[in-house]
């Protein structure tokens, strides 16, 4: 699984440390580049966006009909890191459901 963001030269391996570094760097990026995508497939991924209110999180499972947005839009950096790490480890909904729910 890889993590990518516009400020990276290329996608990198989604290790726990790399996930934490990329997510922590998002608020400092230029407007339009404050997001990261975690996944192996362009149609199956988790994405985080840094905003002044906190982080937003989305998940897609194969098609736009299976695209979900978190009900909260003020996630902390720590919450996003935890959700991304769990997703990279194969737990798609554990922490996501605990923290934010999906719609």
Structure report:
This protein has 103 residues and is α+β, with helices and mostly antiparallel strands. It has one domain (2-99). Helix content is 27%, strand content 30%. It has three helices and six strands, in the order ββαββββαα. It has helices spanning 16-25, 77-88, 94-99, and strands spanning 2-4, 12-13, 35-41, 44-51, 54-61, 67-69. It has a six-stranded antiparallel beta sheet, covered by helices on one side. A hairpin with a 2-residue loop joins strand 3 (35-41) and strand 4 (44-51). The longest helix has 12 residues, at 77-88. It starts with a strand and ends with a helix. 28% of the residues are buried.
**Roughly how many Å is the radius of gyration?**
12 Å
As laid out across the biggest beta sheet, the strand order is: 2-1-3-4-5-6
pLDDT averaged residue by residue: 90
**Considering DSSP H and I runs of 4 or more, what fraction of the residues is helical?**
25-40%
Concise overview:
The chain is α+β, with helices and mostly antiparallel strands and 103 residues long. The protein has helices at 16-25, 77-88, 94-99, and strands at 2-4, 12-13, 35-41, 44-51, 54-61, 67-69.
What keyword list fits this structure?
single chain; 103 residues; alpha+beta
How is the topology of this model organized?
Elements: E1 2-4, E2 12-13, H1 16-25, E3 35-41, E4 44-51, E5 54-61, E6 67-69, H2 77-88, H3 94-99
Antiparallel strand pairs: 1-2, 1-3, 3-4, 4-5, 5-6
Helix pairs in contact: 1-2
